[in-house]
TrEMBL record:
Its EC number is 3.2.2.9. This is adenosylhomocysteine nucleosidase. It comes from Hydrogenophaga electricum. CDD domains: MTAN (cd09008). Pathway: Amino-acid biosynthesis; L-methionine biosynthesis via salvage pathway; S-methyl-5-thio-alpha-D-ribose 1-phosphate from S-methyl-5'-thioadenosine (hydrolase route): step 1/2. InterPro entries: MTA_SAH_Nsdase, Nucleoside_phosphorylase_d, Nucleoside_phosphorylase_sf. It is an enzyme of class 3 (hydrolase). SUPFAM superfamilies: Purine and uridine phosphorylases. Keywords: Amino-acid biosynthesis, Hydrolase, Methionine biosynthesis. Pfam families: PNP_UDP_1. It comes from the Bacteria.
């Protein structure tokens, strides 16, 4: 089986994945910790990318060039944009776009210069495998959540959404900015800060990528409160459960 990278931006998002690796060896390169080992018998490199597109692109390049991974799975949290994308739901990216890319008027808004396109696709086979993993995990509320956590976040049975995920070097934390993004990109399901950068690098090197994100906040005025609470109490359970199923 191919060597797989499992990536998250933050430690809370990766903790439960690392807990599934019995033999990981830590290597620090470029200020990042790479954990090389096995997960359910498969060769895995787990890594924290750090936050933002530059950190993401650097991590993706190192995973491909130094660690020779053959596929990349990114997991973590995102802010919900699309109507019906609620806190606790899961978004599986089928395509990616950098919402802060703007070389207009030289190039159309959002187009990445030199690529002739604004959108990059997830690998359909890898995304299909993640879809199956999510469906098995989401039949009920995610495992290991106690009643008080479910109540605190008003979690309902999570829904799986698939489509466009947008990334930019901004934490979207006002209802006005969220509304602006929804007007500009009505198909966007959720916003985060790394996925589309991974997608560009994976496109360059021909490495399959899939990204799955749990919704931690609605990218609105409440996001600064919802995001850290969700990250601390819930996020890692989701990513751990999804990666285990995968
Ligand atoms: N990741 C999780 N929530 C986010 C938000 N509101 N903006 C950007 N990235 C996020």
């Amino acid at each position: 089986t191919p060597r797989t990278a499992i990536v998250a931006a933050l430690h809370d998002e990766l903790a439960s994945v690392l807990a599934l690796m019995p033999d990981e060896q830590k290597q620090v390169i470029g200020g990042r910790a790479f954990w090389v080992g096995h997960l359910h018998g498969q060769e895995v490199v787990a890594v924290l990318s750090g936050i933002g597109k530059v950190a993401a692109a650097t991590t993706a390049t190192l995973l491909i060039e130094r660690f020779h991974v053959q596929r990349i799975v990114f997991t973590g949290v995102a802010g919900g944009l699309g109507p019906g994308v609620r806190v606790g739901d899961v978004v599986l990216a089928r395509s990616f776009l950098q919402h802060d890319m703007d070389a207009s008027p030289l190039f159309p808004r959002h187009e990445v210069p030199g690529y002739g396109r604004a959108r990059f696709d997830a690998d359909s086979g890898l995304a299909d495998a993640l879809e199956l993993a999510c469906e098995r995990m989401l039949g009920a509320l995610p495992p290991q959540l106690d009643a008080s956590t479910v109540q605190a976040f008003a979690l309902q049975t999570p829904r799986l959404h698939q489509g466009l995920l947008i990334s930019g070097d901004r934490f979207v934390a006002t209802t006005a900015e969220s509304a602006q993004l929804q007007r500009e990109l009505p198909e966007a399901l959720a916003v985060e800060m790394e996925g589309a950068a991974f997608a560009q690098v994976c496109h360059d090197f021909g490495v399959p990528l899939a990204v799955v994100r749990t919704i931690s906040d609605r990218a609105d005025d409440d996001a600064p409160v919802d995001f850290p609470r969700f990250l601390r109490d819930v996020a890692s359970r989701y990513s751990g459960a999804i990666v285990r199923e995968l």
